[in-house]
Predict the structure of Enoyl-CoA hydratase/isomerase.
Amino acid sequence: MVELCYPAPYLACLQLTRPQCHNALTPALIDALLTHGENLAVEAHDAEVKVLLLTGAGTSFCAGLDIKQVQADSQAIEYLLSPYHSTLLPRSLGLTRVQAAALIWRYFPVPVIAILQGHVLGGGLQMALGADIRLAAEDAQLGLLEMRHGLVPDMGLSQNALGLLRYDQLLKLILDADPLDAQQALALGLVTEVHSDPYQVGLALAHRWTQYNSFHLHQMKVLCQNQYQGTPIQALVQEETRIQKAILAG
């Protein structure tokens, strides 16, 4: 359901592999994502992985929760909403298993690039928003469709959308429950760039970034995130100085 490969030194790629179902999320797929994410985080801390690509096999990135399969299993929802604990994610957040599958990429030690094509819907979009960079194909369709099914977005959207969308834009996206095309998503800030071949663009970015020191990559990711989380300016500039001193000290 999830395949791991290493296309180049210091570069890991996780691919969702349920193309016949547009890579829809199931409990087993979510567990596989979390297991790989935790293991790769250890490799990143050891400077063995410096960039992670997150992709989907076939014509879509991820169409969200596999509602039919989950509804057929009376214990699936309870399992997905059960608490999830890890050394990578802050215990204070009190995350469920399904929330962790989206937020783990936000807390991943080094940059995560999501390659988006076709359906990027519901939980698929919420997971993509956990990545640091989102490169979309021209055929990508992005949206939050949970309201159509009598549900609400519950995969850490309130955290992952922070700094990307205004309050009114986010609320409209949720309540409209209609997909946006790639250019609309770009204008709104849901994706970083749109390309005819986002995977190749992502590879090129990753090749450049893997030339950097792992410490630099991690610190810049955290610093940029803190800027959007309302960290006071004084603390941010002091953190810049701390990082630079640590680098110069070797």
Summary: The beta strands are 2-8, 11-16, 51-56, 112-116, 119-121, 133-137, 141-143, 180-181, 193-195. The CA atoms of residues 116 and 136 lie 5 Å apart. The radius of gyration is 18 Å. The mean pLDDT is 94.
